[in-house]
Design a protein that fits this description.
By secondary structure, this protein is mainly alpha-helical. The protein contains eleven helices and two strands, in the order H-H-H-H-H-H-H-H-E-E-H-H-H. The longest helix is centred in the N-terminal third of the chain and has 29 residues, at about 35-65.
């Protein structure tokens, strides 16, 4: 996702919690993982400028005019489409139980949830997984490599940046031949994701670049290790 969208669009709302736990030793480690900080900061400023003057105002307008129930339903529909990516990476990580849950969620939400508009699966106790190919590589021991800030896509690592392409094969946009439909669907997805992050912005403090970098790295470690992160304190 673009600018704080697909990469940051890598989910600032969830990463903010982990950033709040970042203490000095973890920040020092994050700095060691960022040997290209000068270039990364320049790209971050570009992304932030595009977000400030384009994406954020559009997201704010969308959030203002869209009734909450409709906004929630649209968000649920995009998450439902994302179950295909979750399932594929569950399989690649040899997680049969998670694969079964995500398959059940996709079937139930697509049918009883009206194409995913209603998240019936969660109400039935089927908790959504959040997997991607970067996590799959990490699961099998591939190191993250240095932190890198991608133009439009936001924070990433070398591993996660290369992993974005394989995940496109599990997303619908690649298979929509009608260009206006494909572009509209992708555009709404980006705006929806950005709108969902508006409330999380107030949690950002201090150096915005460092905050987002540390939050991203900690969140990715947490996800790759399925929450089994060793506490250094």
């Amino acid at each position: 996702m673009p600018v704080t969208g697909a990469g940051f669009i890598n989910r600032l709302a969830r990463t903010c919690f982990w950033a709040g736990l970042a203490l000095v030793p973890m920040a020092a480690q994050a700095a060691e993982d960022d040997p290209w900080e000068g270039v990364n900061r320049a790209i971050f400023r570009f992304n932030d400028t595009v977000d400030t003057y384009a994406l954020k105002p559009i997201a704010q307008g969308y959030d203002f005019i869209t009734p909450q129930f409709l906004e929630d339903g649209i968000h649920n529909m995009f998450k439902n489409v994302g179950e295909v990516t979750n399932f594929a990476n569950d399989v690649l990580q040899a997680k049969p139980q998670a694969a079964g849950v995500d398959t059940a969620r996709l079937i139930i939400n697509t049918t009883f949830g009206l194409l995913g508009f209603f998240d019936v699966g969660t109400k039935m106790g089927l908790q959504r997984n959040d997997e991607d190919f970067g996590q799959t590589l990490g699961h099998w021991g591939v190191g993250s490599g240095p932190f890198v800030m991608l133009p439009f896509f936001g924070p990433s690592t070398v591993r996660d940046a290369f992993a974005k392409y394989p995940d496109t094969y599990t997303q619908p946009y690649r298979y929509i031949d009608h260009v206006p439909t494909r572009n509209t669907a992708f555009g709404v997805s980006v705006v929806d994701t950005r709108a969902s992050l508006l409330s999380a912005e107030k949690l950002v403090n201090g150096d915005k670049y460092i905050f987002i970098r540390n939050a991203y790295l900690q969140n990715r470690e947490f996800k790759v290790k399925d929450g089994k992160v060793v506490d250094d304190f």
